[in-house]
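Hello forum,

I keep getting stuck at the same step: I have a sequence, I want structure tokens, and every attempt I make locally crashes halfway through. Rather than fight my setup again tonight, could one of you with a working pipeline run this one for me? It's a single chain of 168 residues.
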Amino acid sequence: MRPMTFVYDDTGTLNNAPRDVTELLDDLLVMTEATQFEDDPIVLDAMPSLDHADDFMDRVIAMLTDVHVVFTMSALVGERSDTAAALRESLTRATLKLANLRRFHDAFDGHYEWDSDENGLLVEWVSENASVRLHVPDPRDGNDFTLVVRGPSGDFSWSSFTDIAAGG
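Reply #2:
Ran it on my machine without issues. Output:
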């Protein structure tokens, strides 16, 4: 089963959100009282820190697992009162692009594998005509990663959240 990405509106933002805010969140499924999970999801509920690279490492690794992920609105926008502006910042744009990738890319209908050793973490999703590969070197070496996406819509390679936010 394809893992999905949810948003939990812990701030009440979505109750009266303007259309531009809800459109930015289109790739997230809004949790309701009826939402149920067979297994516990990964819950990302910490507000963004000043070190966005560190925040993004948690996000990218979670988003490439085979487990459902839940973001709280406060984790996406922090304490910002301008939700639309916060959702357009690089860290959040990159997170939302990963949600889109996870929801629609063909690789996520395929086989999931991960491995870790002294060289770091390797996560792969592979289907008949698409693949997504994440390599995170040993964390003592910094916050670097390489995310390579291949499929019918083209091939992409990113190595930072700003690359993902700006890229195709």
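The chain has six helices and nine strands. If your local run keeps crashing, start a new thread with the error log.
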